[in-house]
TrEMBL record:
Pfam families: UvrD-helicase (PF00580), UvrD_C_2 (PF13538). Keywords: ATP-binding, Helicase, Hydrolase, Nucleotide-binding. One of its GO terms (molecular function) is DNA binding. It comes from Ureibacillus massiliensis 4400831 = CIP 108448 = CCUG 49529. SUPFAM superfamilies: P-loop containing nucleoside triphosphate hydrolases. PROSITE patterns: UVRD_HELICASE_ATP_BIND (PS51198). GO terms for cellular component: cytosol. It comes from the Bacteria. Gene3D superfamilies: P-loop containing nucleotide triphosphate hydrolases. ATP binds at G216, A217, A218, G219, S220, G221, K222, T223. NCBIfam families: HelD_BACSU. This is DNA helicase. The lineage of its organism: Bacteria, Bacillati, Bacillota, Bacilli, Bacillales. InterPro entries: DNA_helicase_UvrD/REP, HelD_bacillota, P-loop_NTPase, UvrD-like_ATP-bd, UvrD-like_helicase_C. One of its GO terms (biological process) is recombinational repair.
């Protein structure tokens, strides 16, 4: 009984004190939010708290509680119910021992400056996650600090009441983790700040200005870690980056919905959460009717022939060779424009600028800019020059006419002739000067008119269909390959793999608008990207601050995407590479089955280690055809076992739709999930394996009838994805175990 623990009364008092203080702050801040905030900031201005090197700004960001008080009353209320989840007993050199309580936000006493709660993202909190007890170090910015960690304690607090607490050391089983993992999924990812593991903590806090790439097993927490890293990033780098400059790319809308609620819980608002396809269309302004990205996959799955042609167009379009081809196309366009500078800039017959000089600016000095941005700059250069020279053109012309008129006045004895010439010069001047003035106004636009702006979509479409141009641009392709490429594009169709090309061309030719120029990217399921997609983002956004997480074993789109990480590491030479081998999602029993499939793959990935959590052994239920009654029985027993979310995972979308219809006809509350569906738990969710990627459910029924899983690259991965979605219970339903490669 926790109540008999000698420190129980002290802990209860501490919790009460914390909540009281929070209520106090809340009340005060409500009374006079603004002035309280200013007062707090002022009073803290000269304080050194926690880390002696912390700046005032840092103290303010540490003291997020006040910010929260200002902006979000609701989340503050939530924090109040569970102000902290852990405590460290810590001592810095030559200082007194202290107890630091770690929570989701920080709170500092505004008179004593005592840290009542320390934010989980603050430097010192790192020692909580870092594993070891004893002498430890942690970093504040680039400086290392040391200290002694005596003990770590974890708390379970519910509705503001202390339920239990426990000291943690290396030998204690991490009960909080066990408890967190045995929980029920409500088809939403949750925050895990209380139970972040050492290997995960390393990734969350890995060098923020450097790219990282994580190969992580199914259920190892990749998505969760990416989201926590965003939270950590904004906490630590909030002074330098706005949330709007951060973007998380997810595979589909269903997935965005799935992760959507965790970010606010982690104190992250306003970051861009989207899919690659949506982002590219927004950033380029090019709207396309895209082929369903899963259509090709489905064709591959349903077809009997799983071997791809050697000249596989989606794969080519994802390669760096394709980027090279487009570079040649861009160069061609650039040279065509450069040739237009062969003409000089004139106002009437006065040369204002040499074309060769402008060409040099275009090709060299401004070459760091996108092509059309260079033209805009050159236009400005000409404008300035015209403005500068127009005056002198006019004054020298006026002077010349003055001179000519003077000469005519003095040069002719015959008054008629004199009048004739003087009048002629005056008339000429009076006609010419206004004409020149008009010309001055239009010189720049007349000169620039020759540089027509391209429509990227049209340019790319021409590239896809122009035989002669392709021969010039892709001489390394055989005649047959060139023909295949052209023929594949006779009908106008747009596929996901074309988006990287469009984005790249747009970035190089027009440039990405500031509002879409993300500076920090987080990409989940990165194994489904092509190298060119990543390269296009990196060069178009001019940043390499990418957090990339993925799993090659789940690379079901490998006919067009990545199959290894080496090339990614070459593309991001500054990247740190991490691997995660432990799965937190699945029970040992389920992972054993999934590992059998993993072992059959070519990727040479080590088997996944489940964290120690036992459950029911997966059941195989034999059935020749899809039998809704049988599924109903399984579903009902799973519900009886207390599972919230249950999914029936099929091989294809067609099967999913067909099975759902049969289930509904038998009064089973089923719902087929598509990319745009909303996730709920009240029904039996039916979905194809490729859509289930990234999601998780309490219990899963994997079914395959007419199209069994074959021992092919794609099928092994699809099956592996399906099996690893289950947290607690798994059923496999089909004609034979062989249909599931078992
Ligand atoms: N340290 C942890 N404490 C508690 N739960 C955790 C921890 N790490 C991961 N989990 C849980 O494990 C599950 C899997 O996490 P997540 O979905 O992030 O994994 P993933 O690597 O992205 O999986 P997949 O590759 O299959 O999509 C989630 O329910 C997550 O909450």
């Amino acid at each position: 009984m926790i109540t008999s623990h000698p420190e129980y009364p002290k802990e209860v008092e501490r919790l009460a004190y914390t909540i009281r203080y929070m209520e106090d702050i809340l009340r005060k801040s409500q009374e006079d939010l603004q002035s309280a905030n200013i007062k707090i900031q002022e009073s803290m201005a000269n304080v050194e708290y926690l880390d002696s090197s912390d700046s005032f700004i840092n103290i303010l960001t540490n003291s997020r509680f006040f910010e929260l008080a200002r902006t979000q009353k609701e989340s503050l209320e939530a924090v109040k119910q569970k102000p902290y989840f852990a405590r460290i007993h810590f001592q810095r050199p030559n200082e007194a021992e202290e107890f630091l309580y770690i929570g989701k936000t920080s709170l500092i006493h505004n008179e004593t400056f005592e840290p009542i709660i320390v934010d989980w993202r603050s430097p010192v909190a790192n020692v909580y996650y870092d594993g070891r007890l004893g002498d430890v170090t942690y970093r504040v910015r680039e400086e290392e600090y040391s200290g002694h960690l005596f003990a770590k304690r974890q708390y379970k607090i519910e509705d503001g009441n202390l339920v239990s607490f426990q000291d943690v050391d290396l030998t204690t089983n991490d009960d909080l983790l066990q408890e967190a993992l045995s929980g029920k999924a409500d088809v939403r990812l949750t925050e895990i700040v209380a139970t972040i593991q050492q290997e995960q903590n390393e990734i969350i806090r890995a060098h923020l200005r450097q790219p990282i790439l994580v190969q992580g097993a199914a259920g190892s927490g990749k998505t969760t870690i990416a989201l926590h890293r965003i939270s950590y990033f904004l906490y630590t780098m909030g002074e330098h980056f706005n949330p709007e400059q951060l973007m998380i790319l997810a595979p589909n809308k269903l997935f965005i919905d799935y992760i959507g609620e965790v970010l606010p819980e982690l104190g992250v608002e306003r970051i861009c959460q989207t899919t690659f396809a949506e982002y590219v269309q927004n950033a380029t302004g090019i709207k396309l009717k895209l082929q369903d990205p899963n259509e090709q996959l489905e064709q591959l799955i349903e077809g009997n022939d799983h071997t791809l042609p050697s000249f596989n167009i989606p794969k080519i379009k994802g390669s760096l060779q394709y980027k090279e081809l487009l570079d040649r196309l861009i160069k061609m366009h650039e040279m065509k424009l450069a040739a237009l500078f062969d003409e000089d800039v004139y106002i009437e017959k006065y040369k204002i600028m040499r074309g060769s000089h402008l060409k040099k600016l275009f090709l060299f000095e401004f070459s760091y800019m996108p092509i059309e941005k260079r033209l805009e700059r050159i236009k400005k250069v000409i404008q300035t020059e015209v403005k500068r020279k127009a005056k002198s053109v006019l004054s020298s012309l006026n002077a010349r006419y003055e001179e000519m008129i003077g000469k005519a006045l003095n040069g002719f004895r015959d008054p008629d002739k004199r009048r004739e010439y003087v009048t002629k010069f005056i008339d000429e001047r009076d006609a010419r000067i206004p004409q020149i003035k008009t010309e001055i106004k239009s010189t720049v636009s007349t000169y620039m008119r020759r540089f027509e702006k391209v429509k990227i979509k049209t340019m790319y479409r021409t590239f896809l269909t122009d035989r002669l141009a392709l021969r010039e641009l892709a001489p390394e392709w055989s005649f047959e390959e060139q023909e295949r490429f052209i023929q594949a594009h006779t009908k106008e169709k747009w596929a996901l793999e074309d988006l990287a090309a469009l984005f790249y061309l747009h970035a190089q030719i027009k440039g990405i608008k500031e509002e879409w120029k993300m500076r920090v990217l987080f990409i989940d399921e990165v194994q489904d990207y092509s190298l060119f997609q990543l390269a296009a983002l990196k060069s178009g956004l001019e940043t390499d601050m990418f957090t990339l997480v993925g799993d090659l074993a789940q690379g079901i789109h490998s006919y067009r995407s990545l199959t290894e990480w080496d090339s990614v590491l070459k593309l991001f030479p500054r990247a740190n590479f991490f691997t995660l081998q432990k799965s937190y999602r699945t029970t040992i029993e389920i992972m054993e089955v999934a590992n059998q499939i993993l072992a059959k793959m070519n990727e040479n990935l080590p088997l996944v280690e489940p964290v120690v959590r036992h459950g029911k052994s997966p059941s195989f239920v034999q059935s020749e055809t899809f039998n809704p009654k049988q599924i109903k029985e399984i579903y009902e027993s799973l519900k009886q076992n207390g599972h919230h979310s249950v999914a029936l995972i099929c091989k294809t979308s067609n099967e999913a739709a067909f099975f759902t219809e049969m289930l509904l006809n038998h009064d089973i509350d089923a719902e087929v999930l598509t990319e745009t569906s909303e996730l709920g738990t009240s029904k039996l969710l039916v979905l194809p394996s490729h859509l289930a990627k990234g999601l998780e459910f309490d219990a899963v029924i994997v079914a395959a009838f007419s199209i069994p899983y074959a021992d092919t690259v794609i099928d092994r991965k699809l099956l592996y994805v399906a099996l690893t979605r289950a947290m607690h219970e798994l059923y496999i339903v089909g004609p034979t175990k062989k249909a599931f490669l078992l």
